[in-house]
Design brief:
Number of domains: 2
Strand order of the largest sheet: 2-6-7-1-5-4-3
Shape: globular
Distance between the termini: 35 Å
Helix content: 40-55%
Largest sheet: 7 strands, antiparallel
Structural class: alpha+beta
Number of strands: 14
Number of helices: 11
Oligomer: single chain
Order of helices and strands: HEHHHHEEEEEEEEEHHEHHHEEEH
Strand content: 15-25%
Bound molecules: zinc ion
């Protein structure tokens, strides 16, 4: 308990997720996982149904608290339901509530009735402990866990978890409350240029993205295989599993790379400057409208695929919580400006890689040149802020792990 109070007293608490492999070992544990998962799906469906019916009849939206209350009543009426720990069922209702609120805020579509193949995880908003290599789920017991490497947040306090099934295996994503080491502002600042497949920094480093070419080729092969095979056949199911496995491998490789790159960048300076890119807008524009179809749809679609694949938004999120401070600047002209003399000329950017200033002849790698410009702009913005001119600032917050957390707009 001492650590708990310590963590909360310091105020600067962050949430960090760690994924473990779950090893049920005995069949009855496995069955419990599968059964509980299915029960949660049924509960979700029932709760969604209740919300729909109520809205249709009374025009009123049921809240989480209403449903949580009726859950308690259901549990005393149905002994079968009371076998499952209450907090797991509450987690399911919270999940529905979150989906509903996202819908009402226009962020997502209307919640769907989940089919068996679409329902692969359950939330444990409380009641989890990690002891050595065991995940202790209150009301059930321990399940062995395994993770490569050590736990980087050993002093953290596990607060919640998500148990998920992926490709026939079970995982536990445990959310830890960790005390953030107080970072003092030493005035260092680094500019980051995120380009297709690579990230360049103003301290002249280029982080090349992970090499997933082989895996991508394999994925395409399985996709072709899948489309050739007959629906509902065993062979198709095998191809589907192989495809899913490859896709997961690619995602994991990328995720790992993002963590490494963001850690290195965040450690290199206190403030990290990034371009305020709206990746979503960029990727949506290529399609054009029905009346006016996008002109370079094909080329742009190709580029967009790579942009999305590089995982900018995920990298940015990681930088946001790892860096002492994050500054977002206007991305206009950062790639056309000369970092040496400041002259803006589109012709200076000779190619994807080469920058040669038309005014002063300064030559550099195009991305490194851009990173230097980004740093300068970020510096100017920070100075403007210090002088009293409000600049755009991004809050250094992390909402990971909280099922209902909504990102604050800054
Ligand atoms: Zn120049």
């Amino acid at each position: 308990m001492a650590t708990k109070h310590q963590v909360e007293a310091e105020g600067a608490t962050a949430r960090r997720n760690i994924t473990y492999r779950l090893l049920p070992q005995k069949q009855w544990r496995w069955r419990w996982l599968e059964q509980t998962l299915e029960d949660q799906r049924q509960l979700y469906i029932a709760a969604l149904q209740e919300r729909q019916d109520c809205y249709r009849k009374t025009g009123r939206t049921i809240t989480y608290f209403d449903q949580s209350k009726s859950l308690t009543e259901c549990r005393s009426a149905l002994p079968g339901m009371a076998k499952c720990p209450l907090y797991i069922q509450r987690g399911t209702l919270q999940r529905l509530d979150f989906a509903y609120r996202s819908f009402l805020q226009g962020k997502r579509g209307y919640p769907k009735f989940p089919g068996r193949d679409r329902w692969n995880s359950m939330a444990l908003p409380e009641g989890v402990k990690v002891r050595d290599d065991t995940l202790v789920i209150s009301g059930f017991g321990g399940i062995r866990i395994r993770r490569r490497g050590t736990n980087p947040h050993e002093d953290g306090r596990p607060t919640s978890a998500v148990l998920k099934r992926e490709g026939g295996k079970w995982y536990a994503v445990v959310c830890y409350a960790v005390a953030e080491p107080e970072r003092h502002d030493d005035g260092t600042i680094v500019g980051v240029d995120m380009n297709v497949g690579q990230v360049a920094t103003s301290d002249r480093q280029i982080h090349y993205g992970p090499d997933t070419e082989m895996l991508e080729a394999r994925k395409r092969r399985y996709q072709r295989m899948l489309s050739r095979r007959k629906k509902g056949s065993k062979r198709r199911e095998r191809a589907r599993q192989k495809l899913a496995k490859t896709a997961r491998k690619i995602a994991m490789k990328r995720h790992d790379w993002q963590h490494r790159a963001s850690r290195q960048i965040a450690d290199s300076a206190h403030a990290v400057v990034v371009e305020d890119l709206k990746t979503r807008n960029m990727t949506a524009s290529a399609k054009g409208s029905v009346e006016e179809p996008g002109r370079r749809v094909k080329q742009k679609a190709g580029l967009n695929r790579v942009i999305l694949d590089t995982g900018w938004s995920a990298l940015r999120r990681m930088l946001e919580y790892k860096a002492g401070r994050m500054v977002a600047i206007n991305p206009a002209y950062t790639s056309q400006t000369c970092a040496a003399c400041g002259v803006v000329d589109a012709a200076s950017r000779r190619s994807q890689y080469e920058f040669r200033c038309t005014a002063c002849g300064h030559m550099d790698n195009a991305d490194l040149n851009a990173a230097a410009n980004i740093r300068r702009q970020g510096l100017a913005q920070l100075r403007g802020e210090a002088a009293g001119t409000p600049g755009r600032r991004t809050a250094n917050t992390c909402s990971a792990g909280k099922p209902g957390a909504v990102e604050k707009a800054s």
